[in-house]
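Reminder to self: tokens first, then the designed residues, so the page reads top to bottom the way the pipeline ran.
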């Protein structure tokens, strides 16, 4: 359970900060992502980092207990690994096609609100025992 709490404490505030920053700076974030897409070596390195992070999350979780938190963390880990494989193996043209298909500008706020909600959930669950808050969700 200690690794579950640690991952919630690590990923929760990170998702909160990144989501809030992206929601607050929409005008500069979309061009930032577009510029990032033009740098295949950097995309590969980001893929390797995401693969390591995703594997670390998935390998440390035991979802057989039926608890919500390990399941959510495992899903985040698999999501990171799928993104990593796409970044590492797809050509730049295929990545652009995927990027265009996602319609980032259309779903920008929705995708970042999902990250914000996940961040709130993970932060609350991760720090609830330390702060003496009632454990409403786990």
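Designed residues (138 positions):
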């Amino acid at each position: 359970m200690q690794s579950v709490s640690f991952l919630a404490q690590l990923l929760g505030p990170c998702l909160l900060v990144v989501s809030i920053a992206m929601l607050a700076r929409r005008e500069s974030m979309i061009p930032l992502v577009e510029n990032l897409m033009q740098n295949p070596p950097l995309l590969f390195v980001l893929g390797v980092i995401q693969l390591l992070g995703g594997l670390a999350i998935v390998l440390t979780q035991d979802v057989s207990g039926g608890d919500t938190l390990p399941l959510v963390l495992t899903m985040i880990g698999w999501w990171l690994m799928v993104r990593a494989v796409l970044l590492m193996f797809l050509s730049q043209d295929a990545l652009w096609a995927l990027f265009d298909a996602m319609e980032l500008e259309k779903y920008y706020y929705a995708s970042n609100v999902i990250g914000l909600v996940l961040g709130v959930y993970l932060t609350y669950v991760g720090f609830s025992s330390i702060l003496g808050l009632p454990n409403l969700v786990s």
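The chain has a mean pLDDT of 90.
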